[in-house]
Known about the structure:
Elements: H1 2-28, E1 29-32, E2 36-42, E3 45-50, E4 53-56, E5 62-68, E6 72-82, E7 88-99, H2 102-107, H3 112-128, H4 133-138, H5 140-155, E8 160-171, H6 174-216, H7 219-234, H8 247-274
Antiparallel strand pairs: 1-4, 2-3, 2-5, 6-7, 7-8
Helix pairs in contact: 3-5
Amino acid sequence: MESDSSFYDILVWIVTIAVLAAILLPQMFKILREYERAVVFRLGKYLKTKGPGLIFLIPFIDKIERVDLRVLTINVDRQEVITKDNVTVHVDAITFFRVMDAEQAVIQVEKYIHATSMLAQTTLRSIVGQVELDELLAEREKVNKNIQEIIDRQTDPWGIKVVSVEVRDVVLPENMKRAMARQAETERDRRAKVINAQGEYQAAERMVDAAQMMEKAPMALQLRFLQTMAEVSEENATFAMLPLPMEMLDVFKGMSDTNLPSSSNGDETDTGDES
């Protein structure tokens, strides 16, 4: 009987020790990953920041707050904003940030992720309301940088560094989309007309240069005429060409020049006779 009672006593002690170990060991030892830090509070007062690896705590006296040091992502919900030129748009964004000081992130602000999300949402509405629609669409990087700088300046006392802010999407009203499409079409037509006019101007300049060169070397015009005949003869055309020497044009021109003075003299004679 004494052996049985001693066995039960030992069993009770073993069970008691096992229960205490199961309760105390998880409270005494914590394992933190490489990207985690533990902000330790002893009796409610900040003690130190520990980690990564195995850390030791006093059970029921030390409490910890785990902080993730990796880059975190916040999706800023779509907001309805009125731009500087009174256009209503819907915008959303993504904010990337990381905790640089775990102590400040836990002590200085309650729920730093939620606080950063609300700050990013408010800043997005403020910055978009200060720019015009064309600037928001064409200078997206500038808008992103302004939002990032403002959020980073506000979260710096919290030990948080804003890595980047990206405006993901800008949704325009349907009437504004149609107006912008008409504007783009008109702009393309204007550019086409300007390019066409520039081409005509350059072609006219080259033709003037060519005429001046042919005036200095009349044989160049004859060579150009023969080249044109060769090009036409290569095509399958049902017409015939009768080449005429260019000197014939000079003959007709000389005849017209000689007729002009005679006709003027005849007019003078008729006038004298009438008088």
